Amino acid sequence: MLRTLSSVNYRLQAVRTFTQTSFFNSRYGDLVNHIQATVPIHEITPSDLRATLQATSMWPVVIDVRESSEHAEGKIPHAVCLSRGLLERDVEKVVSVESERPIVVYCAGGMRSILAAEGLIRLGYAKERILSLRDGFDGWKKEGFEIEMPKEERK
């Protein structure tokens, strides 16, 4: 199924399962796979997200759901850091449920963002506007795209 996010296309691909390592055979991996099977979450590739961020005047809301300890590696430019543990509580401070803007959530590798996307849908955000970044921040870095580093704290 082809959908349009601004001027960039993305595909709702066959349900992706996570089975690369023994970690992904855990209950956590089973949960992510179950969510993908029952509530297929739209995914966007790092390349398509970058093109969208460069090409549109109405950017998607990009939410980094990694933990604060992971932010030392940097983040996708203009992303809002809102850890997975606080997402449902604080997301409306970032974007209202009535917003027409697409929301892209990402984590390090793409699993927590599936859970985050499902949480947003349960909160009432429109499913067709919720996207998970395929391969997460690791995929973004692997593509060599720009990374915004944290500002050094003044002492």
The gist of it:
It is built from five helices and seven strands, in the order ββαβαββαβαβα. With 155 residues, it is an alpha/beta fold. It comes from Jimgerdemannia flammicorona.
Q: If you had to describe this structure to a student in words, what would you say it looks like?
A:
The protein is of the alpha/beta class and about 160 residues long. It has one domain: 3-Layer(aba) Sandwich (Oxidized Rhodanese, domain 1). Helix content is about 30%, strand content about 15%. It is built from 5 helices and 7 strands; from the N terminus they run E-E-H-E-H-E-E-H-E-H-E-H. The strands form 2 sheets. A 5-stranded parallel β-sheet has the order 3-7-6-4-5. Strand 1 and strand 2 form a beta hairpin. The longest helix has 12 residues. The relative contact order is 0.19.
How much of the sequence lies in strands comes to 15-25%
Specify the structural class: alpha/beta
Annotated CATH homologous superfamily: Rhodanese-like domain
CATH class: Alpha Beta
If you average the pLDDT, what whole number results? Answer: 85
Largest sheet: 5 strands, parallel
* Whole-angstrom Rg: 15 Å
Shape: globular
CATH arch. level architecture = 3-Layer(aba) Sandwich
Q: Topology as H/E string? A: EEHEHEEHEHEH
Distance N to C terminus: 52 Å
> How many domains, in number, for the residues?
1
Helix content: 25-40%
Query: What are the segments in which pLDDT stays under 50 over at least 5 consecutive residues?
Result: 11-15
CATH topology: Oxidized Rhodanese, domain 1
* Number of helices in the DSSP assignment: 5
Count of extended strands: 7
Query: Biggest sheet, strands in spatial order?
Result: 3-7-6-4-5
GO molecular function: thiosulfate-cyanide sulfurtransferase activity
InterPro entries: Rhodanese-like_dom, Rhodanese-like_dom_sf
Pfam family, one: Rhodanese
Organism: Jimgerdemannia flammicorona
